[in-house]
Design brief:
The chain is mainly α. Helices cover 78% and strands 0% of the residues.
Length: 196
């Protein structure tokens, strides 16, 4: 990315984390990045394109970091432990707020929705591949496809992100993920005792 384009994306990302969708105006982003507001439109057709680029940048960085771990997860406990780490990292880094703000912005500006969903697609693919590997031979694939499992996981995760924004002081989502990780070995044991 060119330096000013990169600064625009980084400034937009920082403002989405701190001030949300409504607080991420062209002027505020330019002030944060230390450049003329008009330069934004040299690189992006609209402010919304810049905000989507900020979400894409954050998502790609995370995908790069976690793709290898997801590919290495061979068991349900490993997969759930990874999901727990991703959630914790997303909460601490502010990525959860960025996703939530763009989803909320999509309600007011429906044209954002398809692009937000498109940016989730690589995560669906990673989750689908992991689900196919982890659940292969368990019999679960007779009832639900890996794609449906991946969609359910991403849907849960999106809902968890939104809930975290509504009630940030509550720890239920983190506790739920931790409980799932702790119960996963029991589920595997049951599967071994009662194969399909």
């Amino acid at each position: 990315m060119q330096p000013t384009r990169q600064r625009s994306v980084e400034a937009a990302l920082a403002l989405l984390k701190e001030k949300g969708f409504a607080g991420s105006s062209t002027r505020a982003i330019a002030a944060r990045g230390g450049f003329n507001p008009g330069l934004i439109f040299y690189y992006f057709p609209t402010l919304h394109d810049l905000l989507l680029a900020a979400l894409e940048h954050s998502s790609e960085e995370r995908l790069h970091r976690y793709r290898a771990e997801a590919a290495a997860a061979a068991t349900l406990p490993e997969l759930l432990a990874l999901l727990e780490r991703i959630y914790s990292d997303d909460r601490d880094s502010g990525h959860i707020r960025v996703v939530s703000e763009l989803v909320a912005g999509s309600v007011a500006y429906p044209e954002l929705g398809p692009r937000v969903v498109e940016l989730m697609e690589p995560w669906l693919e990673v989750a689908e591949t992991a689900a196919a590997r982890v659940f292969a031979g368990t019999g679960l694939e007779l009832f639900v496809s890996p794609r449906e499992l991946a969609f359910a996981a991403v849907t849960f995760y999106l809902g968890a992100n939104l809930l975290t924004q509504l009630v940030p002081e509550q720890e239920e989502v983190g506790k739920l993920l931790e409980t799932g990780r702790r119960l996963a070995p029991l589920l595997e044991l049951l599967q071994r005792d009662h194969p399909s």
